Amino acid sequence: MDITIVSAHATSVAAPASFFDRWADVATWPEWDSDIAWARLDGPFAEGSTGVIKPLKGPRTKFVIERLDLGRSFVDVSRLPGARLTFSHLITDETDGGCAIDVVISLGGPLAPIWKLLLARGFTATTQITLDRLVEVVEAAR
What we know:
This protein is of the alpha+beta class and 142 residues long. It has one domain (3-140): START domain (Alpha-D-Glucose-1,6-Bisphosphate, Chain A, domain 4), CATH 3.30.530. 27% of the residues lie in helices and 42% in strands. It is built from two helices and seven strands. The chain has a seven-stranded antiparallel β-sheet with strand order 1-7-6-5-4-3-2. A hairpin with a 5-residue loop joins strand 6 and strand 7. The chain is globular, with a radius of gyration of 15 Å.
């Protein structure tokens, strides 16, 4: 069973596709996520594609797009010794034409409780800020 580290929620007047376009352009993640030095996707934004992310504080980390429902949700996973770090992203249409955006970061695996002790503070401090920044960037580009 996975342990949730943090979840974040935001709403926007922008179309859901605008957010998905930003997420799919992995190289631009540092434009709205100040914790990322750079990010690279080794192929198309598709289920099973792999990439590498370099956090400002920490080593390069490989990730895989584990699940993808184009335009609606995606899940990327990084493997840590004894654990899986999972980032779940979901966009929900709102009746006014805008959308709701949710991000959940969780850990699974036998060493997940230890990794939570190491990672939770940083993710808890920045995840909502990062999502709010993404909303700002997407809405400014409308």
